[in-house]
Specification:
It is built from 6 helices and 9 strands. The chain is of the alpha/beta class. It has a single domain, classed as Oxidized Rhodanese, domain 1, CATH 3.40.250. The strands form 3 sheets. It has a 5-stranded parallel β-sheet, with helices on one face. Strands 3-4 form a two-stranded antiparallel ribbon. The protein is globular and about 40 Å long.
């Protein structure tokens, strides 16, 4: 019994911290498909019912689902997708922007679009989503709100919840983001 206990590795706090799926800023940086157990403050959650009541154009919906297996051409910004993706009608798809840390070029493009929308619609909500039980939209909503953007909402149920509640989904094309 003593031999078994001494043969077990001893985990230092630094090693345990590195193995955790969160970075030092509190963003999930691994195992993104997992139950989300906290609010993305200062962003706030929006219920599926509230999100579905928003009139088209009354909010900016941003899908941050990664484009698994896709390739983005840096010169044109166009994405070549490995698999099709459906999203909420009217949503803009900015793949990979929910990672921690996000690609700076992709994040800046999304943030610039949010600023442009905010200038035209000062009080309209900005709703970020991906899939149910996915930390990517949580990361993106929190990062955007911490960056000073007001009215950021997080739709935890994502595209599955939207569809399960009777909402339509439409084929999505990622917003082209060329390297600068």
């Amino acid at each position: 019994m003593v031999l078994a206990m001494t043969a077990a590795p001893v985990l230092s706090p630094a090693w345990a911290q590195q193995a955790a799926p969160f970075d030092v800023q509190g963003y999930r940086n691994a195992a993104f498909r997992a139950p989300v157990d906290r609010d993305p403050a200062p962003a706030t959650a929006i219920s599926l019912t509230q999100a579905r009541r928003l009139a088209p154009g009354a909010a900016l919906f941003i899908d941050v689902l990664p484009a698994e297996g896709a390739h983005r051409d840096g010169a044109s910004g166009a994405w070549t997708l490995a698999t099709p993706h459906d999203t909420i009608p009217g949503a803009l798809w900015y793949p990979e922007t929910g990672r921690a840390p996000p690609d700076p070029v992709l994040w800046q493009a999304m943030a610039a679009r949010v600023v442009q929308f905010r200038q035209q619609h000062p009080a309209a909500p900005i709703v970020l989503f991906c899939r149910a039980d996915c930390w990517m939209s949580w990361n993106a909503a929190r990062r955007l709100a911490l960056g000073g953007v007001a009215g950021v909402r997080w739709l935890a149920e994502g595209i599955e919840g939207w569809h399960d509640a009777g909402g339509n989904l439409v084929p999505a094309t990622p917003v082209p983001v060329p390297d600068k």
